[in-house]
Amino acid sequence: MTINGKSVTSRQIEALLAVQDTGSQAAAARSLGVSAPVLHKYLRSIEAAVGSPVVITTPAGSVLTQEGLEVTETARSMGYRVNVTRGFTICCSPVVEDMVMSVVSSLKIPGTNIVVSDDEYNIQMMREDRADLAIIDDPLYLFDAEEFQMEEIGYMGMVFVDNGPSFIKYKYGAQRVAYMFLDSEDREYTVDSETFSLPELLGSKKSYFVDEFLLTRRNLRIKSAIDPKMLRHAITAIYRTETKNVSRVVKALMSRNL
Q1: In the chain, what percentage of residues exceed pLDDT 70?
Q2: What is the DSSP string of 9-61?
Q3: 61: domain range?
Q4: Hey, which of 71, 85, 86, 209 has its CA 20 to 30 A from 192?
């Protein structure tokens, strides 16, 4: 495979696909039968070709950047495959990551994997049968997931920091709901940047939206330009089959009273 005129080997592509499938660089290395340093070398080779990071490390594991997702989408369309035996897998975004991790820890379900990414990728994980349960922040994405069973587990509002017409968009949460609100107000604005990083979002001097729950879990108090309840939206669990593990997790999440 060639990226930006640079050759990338099939083994390097398999490494990136394995990270995407497992949500963990350690698990990816095990699935390929290589050491962690070798896996990292493969990923660095892809990043050198792409010209930017393809993987982001989080406390819960590893997720692909937009550039990484573009590489794997192209690779899969070209027929690259990696077979990984997975355990019970849950997808969620950073918005509810702490809560999901807490629930999984309390339930002690063996072999559970947590993949942290955005709603669009998490739905893709479900469609490709690489996950058993996904927690979706943005209810507008549910129109793209009608083939799954759904259950609302709670609601949350969004904080609107108004620093003028120039916005920085956070990659996670009910962002489409938020920007629909701006459109309904006939406000003139531009989205001039986008970020995966909460510190970058909060440290910017631009306007932005962020889910209130994400701030509360980090003991952050930020004044909102509107009542967060005005942007209240559902958090929804989607799943293909209501297994024992799915039922236990959904019930436990609902008990957290979002």
Answers
A1: 96
A2: -HHHHHHHHHHHHHS-HHHHHHHHT--HHHHHHHHHHHHHHHTS--EEEETTE
A3: 1-85
A4: 71
